Amino acid sequence: MRKTAIIMDSTGYLTSDIINDYDIRVVTLNVNIGDETFKEIELSNSDFFSKLKNISGSSTTSQPSVGSFIEAYQKVLADGYEEIISLHLSHKISGTYSSAMMAKDILENENIHIFDSESSALGLGLQTWAVADWSKEGANAQEILTRLPALRSQCELYFIVDTLEYLHRGGRIGGASALFGTLLQIKPILYFNEEGIIDVFEKVRSKNKALQRVYAELERAMSSGKNHRIAVIHVGAPSEAAIMAKELNEKFPGQEIRIFEAGPVIATHVGPGALGLAFHPWPN
């Protein structure tokens, strides 16, 4: 069997135990704060928000360089892998996918396969985790790539944010929605639409109502009778995430539920205190 390397960008936010157990390689995005640039994997959320207080403007994010991908691909090939599956956040919100494609073109290696998750955070992370499981079970790269589009279509991600201000500042969402959410004190629920773009799923008047609305989406998905892999996501809100996980375990006993923290790239766009939920049927 040809050995398949699995690579994702840093916005997948899988925990270190999963990354290490499956030997998932990570190519990091960058966070720009004032005149300083940091690799996302080197910056905690607490450090990020602390540094953000000391600048007059807002932070921005940037994709990995083409050279970063070339280096990552060459490294895994040198380690004995013969195929590469490289999964990344939606090309509609980042140039990361384009950087990966350019690296593949430069290396002229048909065994490098670039996949657009059409999502981010644990929408990307869960897809990568599934790929790692399939590979561990013995599936080759072509078999995995055949399964991935169906999994992608079943993978759902919802984020509850206090304000759309951060997304508006970063140009990731329309100005009218930002104004509406700010003036009416509405808690927006965000999701990736069918085009792989961040959009407003629904506007709710309290965080608790927003959580119940997201839980209802999970319940709708689980009405199929299939078990699900469920990711609770937070940005600097571990206590609230723990409460979410407890509630979900009570509502949906027997499901695989884990907590993940999204890093500074996502934090730049959703702000502190954001909560999220990602899920898909599993085993698949």
TrEMBL record:
Stretch forming the signal peptide: none
Keywords carried by this UniProt record: Lipid-binding
PROSITE patterns: DEGV (PS51482)
Record-linked InterPro entries: DegV, DegV_C, DegV_domain_contain
Top-rank taxon: Bacteria
GO terms of molecular function: lipid binding
Pfam families: DegV
NCBIfam families listed in its UniProt record: DegV
Name of the protein this chain belongs to: EDD domain protein, DegV family
Species of the source: Desulfitobacterium dichloroeliminans (strain LMG P-21439 / DCA1)
